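Hey, can you fold this one?
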Amino acid sequence: FNLKPALSPLPLSWLHGNGGSSASGVNAVTKMGLLRSETMAHGTLILPVQDTKKYVDKLGKETSLQFEDMNAREMRRPYRKYVQRIEEMERILRFVTDEIGKLEGCAFKRNFINEFLQADASENYKLDALEVELQQLYAHFVKVKDNNGQLIEERNHKIEEQMVADAALKIFEGGQAAGTTGAADESFEVSARRPLMGKEEAGISRLGYLSGVLLKSDEARFARALWRASSGNSFAQFTPIKDKLVDPKTGNIVEKSVFVVYFQGEAGYLHSKIVKVCQAFGANMYPWPSNGAQAKEQYNRLVQIVAEKDQA
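Sure. Predicted structure:
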């Protein structure tokens, strides 16, 4: 149907069952085909503008009328802004429903049809007041969601940095254990575990290194991309993170791994190419400790910070 903001009586186009209607303006009986169990009659009902809402609400609840849009083939939509307001309110309700559904211990009670009809008949709700209340509720939920996402993101960064320090600490401790063995009786396995990082006697760097965290599912692709970008002059080592992390944007659980990339030279063209590969995979970069003492100090400090984040 079409509600025209005019002073003249408002025409409503409608269809009625049971073969006809006693209202004026009834056209010939129309057969509706397989989709209808009864023949329908098409007609036009003239209503005063000031009481249109009341009549339409009454007819829609207590009769078997189907209203048709008289402007279906035209671009005129006098009530388009009201439809847009209702659609926006429906979007807010879907957003709030989804956010409440993510909370533990919260459940919705549904299918209270009779209570809904009674509340609607009592006219306790007004569109303008309900719209304002929903907008305020939406703004509150968006603010809470943003704050919660920021806290989760900060906590994830600290956990990732903590895991980087933990991986470095294990590597340095393994290297120190291997270094305690004498050079004469040093086996191949012990010498192979000795870390290649550090400075040579002449002060020239043997290896450069970059570390960070990326998705566990991207490990193989990341290693191949590094190999191609560096022409085989780099090596990546991965350590899975046991703790599951929550993506602050989607709210899904993700699995990540710590990586450290070794390459020739501390800086230069190869360093910049590896940094670009890390950025292309969306990896979070973190500083790699220079020795075991620094790694242990960094790990202990991050453990305390993560504990504070969990309490917050």
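Residues 1-10, 18-29, 198-204 have pLDDT under 50 and may be disordered. Let me know if you want another pass with a different chain boundary.
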